[in-house]
Amino acid sequence: MIEGHGDDLYRKYARTITANFSSNIYNGARHEGLTEHLCKALRRQAGQEGGQDLLSAYPEPEPYTLEQRLAGIHRLQGRECVCVTNGATEAIYLIAQALSGRRTSVLQPTFSEYADACRIHGHRLSSLYQLPAEREGFRFAPEVQCVWLCNPNNPTGTVVPRRQLENLIRENPDICFVIDQSYEAFTQCPVLDAAEAAAWPNVFLLHSMTKRYAIPGLRLGYVTGNGQLLQQLRRLRMPWSVNALAIEAGLYLTEHADALQADLPRCLAEARRLRQQLQSLGVMDVWESDTHFMLIRLRYGQASELKAYLANRHGLLIRDASNFEGLDKRYFRIASQTPAENDLLIKAIGQWLAEEA
Amino acid sequence: MIEGHGDDLYRKYARTITANFSSNIYNGARHEGLTEHLCKALRRQAGQEGGQDLLSAYPEPEPYTLEQRLAGIHRLQGRECVCVTNGATEAIYLIAQALSGRRTSVLQPTFSEYADACRIHGHRLSSLYQLPAEREGFRFAPEVQCVWLCNPNNPTGTVVPRRQLENLIRENPDICFVIDQSYEAFTQCPVLDAAEAAAWPNVFLLHSMTKRYAIPGLRLGYVTGNGQLLQQLRRLRMPWSVNALAIEAGLYLTEHADALQADLPRCLAEARRLRQQLQSLGVMDVWESDTHFMLIRLRYGQASELKAYLANRHGLLIRDASNFEGLDKRYFRIASQTPAENDLLIKAIGQWLAEEA
Known about the structure:
The structure is a homodimer of 357-residue chains. With 357 residues, chain A is α/β, with parallel strands linked by helices.
């Protein structure tokens, strides 16, 4: 799906957007260090005669150095257990291609690219629905060969407990699991460990540097897993898919990871406050979320109307979530921002309610 | 193919590489303006509250703005006639996917990614060989549905005359032509015009900003063609495949295109001089080339030995071309560099001959 994702800031709204709740990107990231590093790298190289240059030399055809680095960080056996991609999105499309034609089940509602990529690659798709009341277990149709799930899940923010997921994988050795942990840095619930997951022959584990370090502009994701399993992706991937600036950024970010971690307790406490305030308006139901973003169902009216009102009247952007499979026109998603921005949103929604009444 | 392309500077050699003849990237490009622009864009945005940011906001899911700009430059009907991709390589893989399963002929020897991408997408492949004596015409097997050719061709540097190509397309309306004009800015021979080619329903025309502006680190290519034909690519492509810095660079480069054009007459004259000097050594045959790079066949010895000698003893990198389909261990490819660098190469090869004798 090209259109219809969040962060559609590139569109024109009647007002300038001053706060963006529509993407799940963490708002507290400080990019000054990375920015300065990239500028220095660009400048240093541009003046050199010959030698490696960020602009005028090809990047590594596969990002060898960054893959090696990430293997070390995750205590994986070697580079063969890591595949760095042009955003996690490239990983999704490569995995769908590697598994083309399978009978595949996607745990819905979730990020639409899984089903889109599977459709393009001829999977026979079915959906499992994970709604709050049914978080306790999964039952797959016996013919399913491949299961995709997002953990923490987008758009609900819920996390399948680690133990439950481990049992599921162990009990279904014939099913290939694609588990997207793009939001792993934004939850305190335990999720799968990359090294342990790589011991299984049937788990592709997706990670997103885009999400962890709030750099969606650069596009940087990776898959970890069993070396033999990942060989299926290496066989398909094109050379140079990750550009030199993204690789340079990835190397910098992994070196400075500690300094760049989100202040998670504070971030989640603020999200909880926002959730409670919105719930207390009495006109919408807010999903229990294990992370900083949340799915909300309006009891009256439509998400698209609220979105247009907030953007055009208040310069606030939310994600109309009605196009997620299994959801309808009442749903929207927001990611918690700064306390001041969250207050603006609460106030603006209150105003909408007053005007609608 | 991941390994085995040129520009393998990322490998370790006994000496630091001081001149790189191994990639076809134009060596005269001045990147100072682009570098400063990118740094300014990175810095300006990083300090802003909210609003579009090169790092922390998603790029346009399809590069709308740059596609619109390129449509204008090529006098195409609209954005639907341009598909900007993560390097021309993404375009190659998307086209191969759109045409999956076809009976396909590739004009060899050429860039290996065409056949690789077609193989991955289940094409039934055959090869046509274009050697100097046979430049006058092409005869396709009657069952061929799709033909790939590179013009100017990599690695030979030859150009199929525009008239001949136009006749070929006109006479074979049932064949889909994929014509890679990545090196179009580096020849004085006429090649296809994007607007004219878009009038045909059966021509994908590939362009490379990577090549034109010598920015392979950034990955930026595009396809032009009939809007309906390109719809086949849009249906398949993933969102956000071109990152925000590449888009920003593309917008800058198209605005400053005139100032950034290669000094073509000078570049080609120097390539001619290099060709003649190498030919006059009397131990190798240099292909007639219509551009700044050239394919060379050693009369004695192997390209891999020469490559190792030049890299480890002289810090000069050439492209062992033995892995191009239809070529053998005697072939290497070089792109002409500055007169001083070319002289170094000529001298070093002379020394190799003396030591081998």
